Predict the 3D structure of the following.
Amino acid sequence: MNKINRKLWKYHGGLHLEEHKSISTGQQSALLPLPKRLTIPMQQHIGEAAHPIVDVGDKVLKGEMIAEASGKVSAPIHAPTSGTIVEIAALPVPHPSELNVLTIVLESDGQDQWCERYPIENYRHASSEQLRERIHDAGIVGLGGAGFPSYIKLNPGQHFAIETLILNGAECEPYITCDDQLMRERPEAILNGARIMRHALHAKRCIIAIEDNKPDAFSALNNALSQSGQNDIELVMVPTLYPTGGERQLIKVLTGKEPPSQGRTLDIGIICHNVATAAAVADAIIDGTPLISRIVTITGEAISTPQNIIAPVGAPIEELLDFAGRESGVNTQLIMGGPMMGVSLSNTNLPIVKTSNCFLLQPAEPTKPESPCIRCGECARVCPAELLPQQLYWHSRAKEFEKVQEYNLFDCIECGCCSWVCPSNIPLVHYYRFAKTEVWAQEREKEGANIARRRHEFRLERQEKVEREKAERMRKKKAMLKDKEGAKDDTAKKAAIQAAMDRAKAKREANQVDSTISASDSQPKSEL
Amino acid sequence: MFTATVTLSLLAILFGLILGYAAVRFKIDSDPVVDQIDAILPQTQCGQCSYPGCHPYAEAISNGEADINRCPPGGEATIQALADLLGVDPKPLDPEAGEVKPEKLVAIIDEQTCIGCTLCIQACPVDAILGAAKQMHTIIESECTGCELCLPPCPVDCILMVPVKQSANHWKWPFPQPSAGLNEGGNL
Ligand code: SF4
Ligand code: SF4
Ligand code: SF4
C-alpha cells in the first residue's frame, strides 16, 4: 500500500468547504421497501434513449431487459423487480428541463422474482470484447453522475495503450456520501470490479483514490485487499479539496499530468471510472446482475434521518424522502446532486434513475440578490480548470458564443467554485450552461443546414438531369422528324435534279442537231 | 547567350507546367464569396428572400443586387454574421421578406386527409416528403426545413406546421433570469 510515500501533485484553485457528510454516514445503508409502482425512463444516460421491447400487459421478471440500446452511445434498461408493464408513455424525468421522456411503468407483483442469470465463471479467461459486451448488456453507465455508457470507456481502441486505470472514490462534493458508504460496505465488489476493468483494458496498473476525509472507506478497502491476498491495486489517499473528484483534477493530483484541452484522458494513457461503476461491473460479470438499483444519499437540513438508501431504478423520490423522514413545517427546496453542482427540481414526484447519486432537501432560502461584476478576480483564483470565469460570464451574457469558446468554455467542469466565491452572487455556472447548450444547438443547426444544402443541391441536379434528358429526347425527336422530311426532300430533289438533267440532255440533243445544222453556217465565220 | 536563352525557355516551360497543374489541381468550382455567404444562410430554401433558394440569394448579395436583411428564417443572427463577413453595418430584417418565427416549425401531413396527389413532393426543396401517386404521403421530420413551400399546393389543406418536438438531449438552458431561484453553490 503506497499510502505513505506516494508523491502527489496539486491543481490550481479549489475550495475547502464544510463537508456535512457525517450526518448521513451514521448507519448502514437501508434497503428501500419495494415500491408498488416503478416509473423507468428510457433516457437515464448520455446518448440515445433506449427503445422499449415490452408491451403494456407483459409480465416481466426481475433483471429482464425491457428496453434495448439504440445506437452505439446508449444503454439497455432492465426490470428492477418482477411484475407487469402497466403503461408506456412520456412522463416527467429528473432533469433540469422537466421535460417528459418515454417511460415504462412497471407494477411490482411483490415477488421480486429473478430471471435466469448468466455469470461469467472466470473473467480472467474472458476476452476484452466478451467483458465489454456483458457490461454493455447489463446497462452499466457511469454512476458518478455523468451517465456515459461504461463499455465505451473500456474500449480505448488499438492505438491507445492504457497505463493507468483510476477508480475515483474521491467524492469531494459536500453532503454526498453514497460512494463512501459503498466503499465501506462492499469493498470486495469494488476491488473485483477494478480487476475486471483492468483486465478488459489491459491496464498496467490500477489506483483507487479516496479523499482523506473517508478513513473508514480507506481501511475497509485496505482490509479487503489484504484478505484477497493480492497486492495488485494501489489505494491512494488524496487531500480533501473541492473538486478533487473532477476527472482532470484527480489525474493531476495522482500523476501530475494534464490531458490536452478538450482532449481525452485516453490521450495520456489514463482511464477513470467511478467506484460505484466498478461495483456494478463486478455484479454484472460475477453474478450476471444488470444495473437495476443503486445507492442514493438522501440528506439535507430538512431531512430528519439523513442516510443512504439502496433503491431500485424507477422508485419515486417521494418514497425515499419519506423513508428518511422530512422535517415538518418547513418550506423546502429539492436539489438533485450535491450543493455545488446539483440542479433544483420543482417536482418531487419523479423517479430515481441510474445516475441519481444524491437528493438534497434544504429549507427554501430566498435567492441572494445579484449585483454587477466588480472584477475582483476571485473566481479566477479558485477555478480548478484555470479559466477566466468573469470573461466567460461577460461573453456568455452578451451571447458572444465564439468569444466564449476562445476562453475555453468547454473546459469548464461546472464545479461552481466561481459562483461560490463571487461576492456579487452572479449565477456564473448558469451562464456557462446556457452558453454550452446554445453552442451545441448552433452546431446542430449548422449540421442540419449542411444536410439541407446537400439535399437541395441533389434535387436541383436531379431536376436538371430530368430537364436535360427531356431536352435530349426533344432534340432526338426533332432530328428524326427532320430526317423523314429530309428523306422526302431528297427524292424531290433527286427528281428535280433528274428532271433538270433530263431537260438539259434534251436541250443538248436538240442543240447538237442545231449545231450540226448551223455548223456549216458558222464554220466559215470562225475561220474569219 | 545561347545558354541563357535555353535556361529561360526551360524555366518558362517549367513554370507554365506548374501553373497549369495548379489550375487543374486547385480548381475552384464556384465563387468563394458566394460559398461563404451561402454557408451562413440557414438553407431553409423557402424563397422568402425573393430568390429561388439560399444559393441564388447568396449570389445576389455577392454581386450587390440584394441587401443582407432579407432572410427571415436566419433572423438577426444571420444578418449579423453576413454583416461581419462583408464588413457592412447590420440592419433590421426587411419586413417585406417576412417575420422571424418564434420557434422552429416542421410540416406534418394529416394522413387521413391526404389524397396522394404528389403536388407537395414537387414543391419540397429538400426532398423531405415521401409518397407515390394516390398513396398517402409522409414528411421525414428530421429533413424538413420548415420552409412551408408544400402548404399552398396542397388541394385539400392537409399539411400543418407544428413545433419541433423537444427532447431532453437537445434541451437548452434558458438565459439566466435574476429571479431564477437558483442558489448555485449557495445550497450549503
Ligand atoms: S468573482 Fe464575481 S465579481 Fe469577482 S470577478 Fe468574478 S464574476 Fe466578477
Ligand atoms: S464552474 Fe467552470 S469556470 Fe467556474 S470555477 Fe468551475 S471550472 Fe472554473
Ligand atoms: S429567405 Fe433565407 S432561408 Fe429562405 S431561401 Fe432565402 S436565404 Fe434561404
